[in-house]
């Protein structure tokens, strides 16, 4: 990494004030400022050396503080700002404070998916030998030393991933990803960085891992091409390799949450979130930059079972909202460097202006995406809102289900499964969808369906359908009153989601040619909540067979819904659901709620309709 340009004394004061203001509550501002006098050549000492590692994660292709779905600057209730452009300003300021020679920069994955900007450069004008990916332009301008793979890197296929990788000026790390069937590593497992100190050089090993759930969630993109080993299992092999290669210090960039658990249950032999287990079970790691879980962890220590040593973990939330600052104080003893102490804190990007180098590099790509998503393709006959979709039947979710079910019915026509009643599942992905009646743009549709899932259909029985609905209904907390606030009702914790079931794991089932009607009695324990399950006004027999329109994330095990991963697949055209919705509107010219919107399900408490306040 090149040295930063020296700043004037006035600029240093301004920079230091910005960094002090950026320290997230719960972190130590004094730790940052005490370590930051650039005039004293930070990090350079004969026997002691401070190595600073800066980290981002789960950027999800957010470059600027922009909400493509609202066509406006990003806002949330907490006042956060997003984007690598803001994060870059903080990163470069810390480098200037600590000394660029004593600073490394990492990312923990999920980089090239998540916004219409990502979609545009994957599907509309794909990154290629002549088209630079915006996240290559941005990350190269930041000057990362390495980035780990995230599971969403595989959403657009291996070819696009390899194109992005080829455009990076730093290595893309994925030690536990192998060429299918061969055992050979498919990506760079680690990189060694030599950092100059006042007493020779310290060698830092940077290692990357990705959650093995990729094998499920993007099976259609990776099956037969890539295999994914468990993180701990792979680390027991690769960490000794890194040490043997000469690493004095080992930093892991791990796209796997710090809280143990898996959204896919026992569908894989390896856990989804293994960063804490990695720290406990594998000796030789000094610090872990955590990703995947979208959590804010300023500093956490996990004790390694073999050595008794504390391993530092930190996670900088998501979307460039935070930057992790890891400080490792090294001492040189008997010719080698060891970590004497380790600490970390987070910086908040809302305090930082955009890095103009990023603005210059990515503005043209951003404008191309903005123009694309604001193209009018049809009209909506009524407003489509998801503000209450998590507790009452919503036309917005019905629209998704209607398009999915209609497509599956067409795909099955003329075949052996043509006579099966068609159902569809969809979740209220976001509570912020607010499509107005009138002109419909591509960004309106993209806001309705924010993920890049593809559509397929499976065969389920009536008994399996009821089990599926019961699993979904565990999303609700147990409530006996007939009036409740939404916060006291939704996002119930479960063994798979101890912090609360996310909205995207609450599925609503819709019948195409006849209503699928049911009540969810939230006064009853989970597993006993589905009441009055009717199809076309008739109770659903256990043996009745249905064709179920389902997305690839859910069918491959996401959310661990029962019965779906082993159910017979009836069709799999691998069409993106969002594009199918766009195509439907273009073909029909309208999204007419009168065609699809129905009140098919409701919440009750001991049989009495439930009143829910937002």
TrEMBL record:
The keyword Coiled coil does not apply. Residues 376-563 form the 5'-Nucleotidase C-terminal domain. Residues 52-295 form the Calcineurin-like phosphoesterase domain. Residues 1-40 form the signal peptide. Keywords: Hydrolase, Nucleotide-binding, Signal. It comes from the Bacteria. InterPro entries: 5'-Nucleotdase_C, 5'-Nucleotdase_C_sf, 5'-Nucleotdase_CS, 5_nucleotidase/apyrase, Calcineurin-like_PHP, Metallo-depent_PP-like, TAT_signal. Coiled coil: none annotated. It holds the Pfam family 5_nucleotid_C. Belongs to the 5'-nucleotidase family. This is 5'-nucleotidase C-terminal domain-containing protein. It comes from Arthrobacter horti. The lineage of its organism: Bacteria, Bacillati, Actinomycetota, Actinomycetes, Micrococcales.
């Amino acid at each position: 990494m090149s040295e930063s340009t020296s700043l004037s004394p006035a600029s240093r004061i301004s920079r230091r004030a910005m960094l002090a203001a950026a320290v997230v509550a719960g972190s130590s501002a004094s730790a940052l400022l005490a370590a930051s006098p650039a005039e004293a050549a930070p990090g350079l000492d004969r026997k002691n050396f401070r190595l600073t590692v800066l980290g981002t994660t789960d950027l999800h292709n957010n470059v600027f503080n922009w909400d493509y779905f609202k066509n406006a600057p990003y806002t949330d209730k907490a006042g956060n700002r997003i984007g690598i452009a803001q994060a870059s300003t903080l990163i470069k300021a810390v480098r200037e404070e600590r000394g660029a020679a004593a600073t490394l920069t990492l990312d923990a994955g999920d980089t090239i998916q998540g916004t219409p900007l990502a979609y545009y450069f994957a599907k509309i004008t794909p990154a290629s030998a002549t088209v630079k990916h915006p996240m290559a332009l941005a990350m190269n301008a930041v000057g990362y030393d390495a980035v780990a793979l995230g599971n969403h890197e595989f959403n657009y296929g291996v070819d696009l991933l390899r194109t992005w990788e080829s455009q990076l000026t730093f290595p893309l790390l994925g030690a536990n990803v192998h060429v299918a069937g061969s055992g050979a590593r498919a990506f760079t497992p680690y990189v060694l960085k030599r950092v100059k100190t006042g007493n020779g050089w310290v060698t830092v090993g940077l290692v990357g891992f990705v959650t093995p759930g990729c094998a499920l969630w993007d099976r259609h993109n990776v099956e037969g091409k890539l295999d994914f080993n468990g993180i701990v299992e792979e680390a027991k092999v690769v960490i000794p390799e890194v040490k043997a290669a000469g690493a004095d210090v080992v930093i892991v960039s791990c796209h796997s949450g710090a809280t143990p658990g898996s959204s896919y249950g026992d569908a894989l032999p390896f856990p989804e979130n293994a960063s804490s287990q990695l720290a406990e079970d594998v000796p030789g790691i000094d610090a872990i930059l955590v990703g995947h879980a979208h959590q804010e962890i300023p500093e956490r220590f996990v004790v390694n079972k073999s050595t008794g040593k504390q391993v530092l973990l930190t996670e900088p939330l998501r979307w460039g909202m935070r930057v992790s600052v890891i400080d490792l104080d090294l001492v040189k003893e008997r010719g080698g460097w060891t970590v004497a102490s380790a600490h970390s804190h987070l910086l908040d990007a809302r305090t930082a202006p955009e890095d103009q180098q990023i603005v210059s590099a990515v503005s043209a790509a951003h404008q191309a995406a903005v123009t694309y998503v604001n193209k009018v393709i049809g009209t909506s006959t009524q407003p489509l809102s998801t503000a209450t979709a998590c507790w009452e039947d919503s036309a917005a979710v019905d629209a998704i289900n209607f398009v999915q079910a209609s497509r599956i019915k067409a795909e099955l026509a003329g075949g052996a499964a043509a006579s099966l009643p068609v159902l569809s599942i969809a979740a209220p992905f976001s509570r912020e969808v607010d499509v107005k009646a009138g002109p419909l743009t591509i960004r309106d549709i993209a806001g309705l369906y924010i993920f890049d899932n593809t559509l397929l259909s499976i065969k389920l029985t009536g008994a399996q359908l009821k089990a599926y609905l019961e699993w979904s209904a565990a999303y609700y907390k147990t409530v006996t009153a007939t009036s409740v606030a939404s916060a006291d009702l939704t996002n119930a914790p479960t063994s798979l989601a101890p912090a609360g079931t996310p909205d995207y794991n609450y599925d609503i089932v819709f019948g195409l040619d006849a209503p699928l009607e049911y009540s969810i009695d939230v006064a009853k324990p989970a597993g006993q909540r589905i009441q009055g399950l009717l199809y076309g006004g008739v109770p659903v027999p256990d043996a009745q067979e249905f064709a179920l329109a389902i997305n690839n994330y859910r069918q491959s095990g996401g959310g661990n819904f029962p019965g779906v991963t082993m159910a017979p697949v009836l069709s799999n055209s691998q069409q993106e659901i969002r594009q199918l919705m766009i195509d439907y509107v273009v073909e029909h010219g309208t999204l007419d709620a009168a065609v699809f919107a129905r009140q098919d399900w409701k919440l009750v408490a001991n049989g009495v309709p439930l009143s829910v306040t937002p």
